[in-house]
Specification:
Pfam families: YopX. This protein is mainly β. It is built from two helices and ten strands. It has one domain. The strands form three sheets. The protein has a five-stranded antiparallel sheet. The chain has a three-stranded antiparallel sheet with strand order 1-4-5.
Amino acid sequence: MREIKFRAWVLQDEVDGEHIAAEYMEDDVESFHDPLYEHKQGNIVLMQFIEQKDSDGNEIYEGDVVIWYNPMIETGERMTGVVVYDTKQATYKKCPINLYKANAGDGGYTGFEFRWYDNIKVLGNIYENPELLQN
């Protein structure tokens, strides 16, 4: 059975830099009475688990920045990209950073599908580590 999980990023108030929408904190985890309402209001961003793990066993979510190489290509070139959901092909992809920046928010990404042999490693995500989007 498919495991459906989400990770949430709480957006910060642009006025004073404080986190918004959190009703209370418990063990440094922000909790919400109605997270779907908060998502619809634009207060939190939901990132879905893509049902895959990286080479270190870390779960991979939408918005993660990953590095990978295809051992079937002789050069062994490493690529860095963002995990996105391609709405036109209904699949998760690894979108190279330059293409991600050009198409961010469009939903029609050109990228690479996930393969078992990719040797993927999660570096961070676009919200906690925006510096990873700088080539």
